[in-house]
Amino acid sequence: GAEFCSTQGFETLLTRMKEGSNMCKELEDFLKHRAKAEEEYSKTLQKMVKSTGDGGEIGILRNAWDTVRKETDHLATVHTTMSQSLLKEAEDIRGFRKLQEQHRKEIEEDNMKYTRLKRDLYKKTMDAKRSYEQKCKEADGAENAYSTSRVTAQQKEIDKLKKKASGARQQAEQADTAYKSCVEGLEQSRISWEKSHAHSCQVFQKMEEERIMFLRDKLWVHSNLGSMICVQNDEHYEDMRKALEHCDQHKDVSLFVNTKKTGTQRPAPVVYESYYPDGTKSAKKFAVSPLHRDRPSTMSSRPPEPLPQVASAASAVPNLPTKDKHRSISANKYPDGGAYASVQETRRYSSPTSPPFGEGDTVKVAFDYDPQGHQELTLRRGCHIRVLKRENDLWWQGEMDGKIGVFPSSYVEPISLI
């Protein structure tokens, strides 16, 4: 400012230097927080890898999953390295900030020394000026009184005023000398202060330029570290993608079938076996032997799963043997090329004759049955079915509720047995 003792210019520079130091602290804290985030993320990835297992997976997908876990662990290492690099950069900024603060304080103290000296001399000079002016006024007054008394006053009084005027003039000259000396000292102080201030400006400018370039370089390093970690992450994710490219669902399913298969045969259905030889519920017409009476029933309370679906009601009924009591059924083809598993056939009735119902008769459903294909009928216990065709002893064609389809004969009973 224009005021002689003003420190506004220096204080403005000093404020700028303190703001620069605050910026260094802000970037230092930013990098520390970023490093902490990278470290926590790395620990989270490591925890994820350690807490996951193979999930019971097999085959190519298992290998891909192992690769994903391994590369995730590598990603954790990458982020740990990133965290350490950021902490190192933050420490560099802290050291630079402390060094600049120390240098700034030295310049500030030197400048304030000259500022205080200039302010003290200025005050002393102003006091000397006021004393000089006062003494001059007193000397002028004494000389005016002496000049006036020479006309009217007595000689004694005139001598007295002359002596007083002479003394006042001497004091004024002494005050003038002191005042001049203060002005000269103040000028020397001003020159020294200006040199100190100019030096402070030069040092502050150099420090500011260094700070700007230093922070710019640190921000550049931060950006490079971010780019580097992205490249490394992409490399690990690329390894994951390469492993996943080899996944083949057909090969994995085939591997599961080959390593976990439990057999190729399906269980045979449980059929109804009448306690009475002729299939009736009456014991009056036959003498039942004790051996026959004690024979346990082989009918299950819940029948097994039915045979696979067939293509049509008429043409898809399997050509099964019907006369022998026990005969194997094997390699019956599905319409789509599949095959039935081998099933042991058991006659429904122990009677040597066929069941007492046939085509055109109505039978009653004895067990519930859910169809395995769109050509099969849904059976519910107690419903009636009209038999349309008996191709063999296992699968018949019938009509129920206006729908024609095939059904397992072992799930129905004649009306007369109810």
Task: Explain what this protein looks like in three dimensions.
- With 418 residues, the protein is of the alpha+beta class.
- Strands 6-5-4-3-7 form a five-stranded antiparallel beta sheet, with no helix packed on it. The protein has a two-stranded antiparallel sheet with strand order 1-2.
- Strand 5 and strand 6 form a beta hairpin.
- Helix 1 packs parallel to helix 3.
- The relative contact order is 0.08.
- About 17% of the residues have low confidence.
**What percentage of amino acids are in beta strands?**
5-15%
Distance between the termini: 121 Å
Tell me roughly what share of residues is in helical segments: 55-70%
Q: What is the gyration radius calculated from CA atoms? A: 58 Å
Helix count equals 5
| Tally of strands | 7
**What is the spatial order of strands in the main beta sheet?**
6-5-4-3-7
* Major β-sheet profile: 5 strands, antiparallel
Give the topology string: H per helix, E per strand: HHHHHEEEEEEE
Average pLDDT level: 80
User: Which structural class is indicated by helix and strand composition?
Assistant: alpha+beta
* Poorly predicted runs: 283-354
Q: Could you say which overall geometry the principal axes of the C-alpha atoms support? A: rod-shaped
